[in-house]
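Give me structure tokens for this 289-residue protein.
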Amino acid sequence: MTASQTFLVNPEQMKPEKLILIGSSGLIGKSLLNVARSHFSSILCVGSTSITSWNNGNNGKCTHSTREDKLGWSDLDKHLDSDNFVINASWGRNNRVDRNSQIQMEYANRELRLIYKVNNRTLNYLSFGSIAEVDDTRISPSYGTLYSKAKIKIFRELEQSSSAYLWIRLASIYGHNDKRDWLMNQLIAHAKSANRILLKSPNLLINLCQVDALAQEIFNILEIKSSSALNIFTKQWVTVKELSNSFGLLKEPNYSMIQSLNFSQNDPRGYLIETPPFLNFIRCSTSHE
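Here you go.
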């Protein structure tokens, strides 16, 4: 089921001119920034230590400033008004060993402080959830961890807020220059060394979503009129074992057939997007040159 089949789109809705993009240097943030330049006249890129202001009307020039409030959001006060989109593409430690760390709740509380700040002040707020929120053990082994609970806590607050919002739940986002310590990078390292990796959960289902394809679609989703939580998924479902085989043989994986068009049978709010052949990524990432 696609968003056009589920939601009403208001073509006359006024677009804000300014985007505030938090986490612009991360995997998702970089891709969003590349696409956003054709959608907004100005973009404020908020990193962990600096803020960069990009203005299309000023020959694409950038101005840089150091963040004074590196752990909070007071730096954004002067930039927030009713004509902003705010996209928060930043989280923190998103790896398996920290899934039950209390730091996940600290990240959640930090985002909640941001939500309180933008409430009633922006046209739209978009942030990213996780497959860990979905109670389906076939595809979400991290359900019930502190990471999962932290994400659910944020979403519940968004539901109660008066701001228009979009909550995008993601599974296995991949792309160039991905520095996260997870399965994909382990497979790349082993493929380059001609070694085989020991698979802990070979039958676990993974849904592959290329980050640039996601970024393109997100700006289509921003046209949706009502506040929503969406589970972004593709047709590229694959087991961990098959994914490993595809790296070893340099071939497109044999994808698993999923009867339901939903991200999870336990949560039907699915939004199907197209993503390029995974073989392109394998060839590029395992090149020895």
